[in-house]
Amino acid sequence: MQIAAVWESEHPGTSPRVSMRWAHNLTQQQVADLWNELDPGTATMTKSRIYQYERWPTATNGRRPSVKSLSMLARIYQTTARRLLTDEEYARYDASARAELDTIDHRDFDTKFRSHACRHLTASGAAIPDAGARNPSSSVVAPSSVTPIEGMPRSEESSGSDADSENEILAAAADESAGFARVVGQTNIGPTDLDQLEADVRHLARRYLTEPLVPLFRKMCRIRDLTFSLLNGRQYPEQTRRLYVIAGRLCGLLASVCSDLGYYDAADTHARTAWLCAELSGDDKLRAWILSTRSLIAFWDGRIQDAVQHAEHGISFSAHGIELVRLRSLEARARAKLGDEERTRSALRAAEETRQHVQDDHQYEGMFVFSPGNQERCAGSSYLWLGIPAASVTSLERALVYFQSEVPAMGNEPSYAHTIVTRLDLALAHLRNGDLDGALEVVRPVIGLPPDLRLAGVVRRTHVLGRLLATPALRSTPLAQQLAEQMEDFAVHNAARQLTADVRKSRERSP
Q1: Residue 327 backbone dihedrals phi, psi, to 5 degrees
Q2: CA-CA 20 to 30 A from 34: which of 8, 261, 276, 277?
Q3: Closest residue by Cα to residue 197 from 249, 270, 234, 237
């Protein structure tokens, strides 16, 4: 009965006599055959009559089952007569009939006749489900009884009985088509759900650039979980596709958070799930963005060849536009880390040429944007890895100018993370160019960055900066030593440490 109740809740308007038959995975003909096994009298029950009982009272060709008929159906379905009627149907019987119906209970009916009947029906070529499929407490359906649409009955075939009219057979087939439409036409998506989720993702992408990531991470998880729960339900194909895009972006953002906090294994796990969502959505721009995220993760995890391969894979989904600029820039930085100057310069030229023809930049917000400032930052970083500090200084200085001018013009605050890592890379380039004063000037604003905004990329660069300041050429310089001490203290207090502290406090509060 539990299975029948589930189907009735999922498919409102289904007759309880139909849902009980579906729950036992029986056709109307099989019900009629079981009836005749129980009552082998002169009046033979037919599939047509079972159909009429199920159609009552909503159809003109329906027929109200008598108390005796309901008792027989209750025996077949091992339930109560009352369970086979809706409240409205029950009210159509007079008081004495209702009193009799209330006493009919065949839930403990001896099923020996079922075994005999099953053998008889099997011998006649009918498919009978196993006990697990008939058991009301079991949701398992025998493989032999699986139907094309979950919860839908198999099409009835004409038994050749004289009682079967063409009209009833055609009407039964129409009912099954209508039942199919009720199942596949359902959606768990409200009229504004997708728009709200997409707005939530845009909001998170904007906040990513300006707020501490640890509290933002928790909100990302909540919205991702909501999206996953919706995907577990039923919706129209286009709604499903949009949900996969939303889920892919959320998992990509979670991957970025983990990477920015230095948890690269977790980042890669989120990114793989994001890639699956991108594949299921069929969205090439999402595929390209996820692969750029995977390239970033691999780069900072020390898997430089993987970073190149992810970027190249992403390029195969990007003939033009922002994603191609992003991927070419990341490819250039990874190739620079490998020491391949020729291919690095080729990738940088390709990024610059693509930028000149970009027309989709208005489609991106917050974390999804790849601005000219970010492009210059990647170029400056590439030159830094190649050991060309003068070219690095030129690109990184241009990047800082972009970050201070372009983002406010778009109505957003400058990204603290992009600005800070650009300053630190520029300080490194000045030091490698022999310019201590230039390094001190550009890094001074970094010192005041709050600990919860000190991401892994910031901490990593301060360690490199500290090692350069400790070289023999600078070790004896008071200003260099002072900056080295400040950088060491700066790196100790960071966002990843805050996350660890928050987890520890949460565990302490748990009973």
Answers
A1: -65, -40
A2: 8
A3: 249
How far, in whole angstroms, is CA 25 from its chain's centroid? 33
Token pair, residue 474, equals 């600078």
Where are the alpha helices (H) located in 78-212, listed in sequence order? 87-90, 95-103, 112-123, 131-134, 166-184, 193-208
Tell me the C-alpha distance between 72 and 78, whole Å.
10
- Most distant CA pair in the chain, distance: 114
Helix, strand or coil, per DSSP, at residue 228: helix
Return the H-helix or E-strand segment holding 25.
none
Amino acid residing at 104: I
CA 421 to chain CA centroid, Å, is: 32
pLDDT tens for 138-154 read 333 333 333 443 334 44
Closest alpha carbon to 279 in 235, 308, 224, 241: 241
Residue bearing the bigger pLDDT, 378 or 364: 378
Give the integer Cα–Cα distance in Å for 252 and 293: 7
The answer to whether residues 179 and 152 touch, using CB atoms and an 8 Å cutoff, is: yes
Residue 80 three-state SS: strand
231 vs 251: CA distance, rounded Å: 14
Comparing CA positions, the residue from 446, 495, 497 lying closest to residue 212 is 495
Q: Are 446 and 440 in contact (CB under 8 A)?
A: no
Q: Which candidate, 270, 320, 319, places its Cα nearest to that of 296?
A: 270
Question: Residue written as tokens 């890094």?
Answer: 443
What local confidence, expressed as pLDDT, does residue 415 receive? 80
Which residues does residue 427 pair with via DSSP β-bridges, in sequence order?
Answer: none
Q: Could you tell me where the beta strands, DSSP code E, fall in 10-161?
A: none
d(CA 271, CA 280) in angstroms, rounded, equals 14
- Would you call 152 exposed, middle or buried from its count of C-beta atoms within 10 A (0-12, 13-18, 19+)? middle
Helical segments of 185-263, H only: 193-208, 213-231, 237-260
Cα(488)–Cα(469) distance, integer angstroms: 11
pTM for the whole structure: 0.67
Q: Quick check: 210 and 452 in contact, CB under 8 A?
A: no
CA–centroid distance for 438 within its chain = 47
